[in-house]
Amino acid sequence: MAIQSDELLQIAVAAADEKKAVRVVALNLKEISLVADYFVICSGNSDTQVQAIATEIRKQAEKSGARVRGMEGMDTARWVLIDLGDVIVHVFHRDERDYYNMERLWSDAKVVEFA
Asked: 35 or 41: which carries more pLDDT confidence?
C-alpha cells in the first residue's frame, strides 16, 4: 500500500525538525496545483546542515516505504529539492531562502499547522 501524502508530510517535517531545520513551513497545494499535495520549505544555517536535513528526510521517507523520485542540489547545498511525489521538500541555505521567497510565490496556498 502506498503511503498517503498527509503521512509523508508528517515524516518529512519530523525529519527536518530532527536535524534542527529553521522556519519549517508546510503549504497545502491540494486545491491550487497539480504538481503536488504539499510543499515543505525549511532552512539550514550552513551547507553541512542543509545536507544533513535533506539526507535525514530522504532516509526517513525511504524507511517509511516512500519512493524518493529525485533529489537535486546536494552538491552545492544552497537549495536542495527532494521530490517525494505528492510532497516536495525545499531545503534552503539561510542566505538563499529569502531571495527565492517560495512562501510568497505560493501565497494562495494554505499553511499547514502542526500540533
From this structure: 41
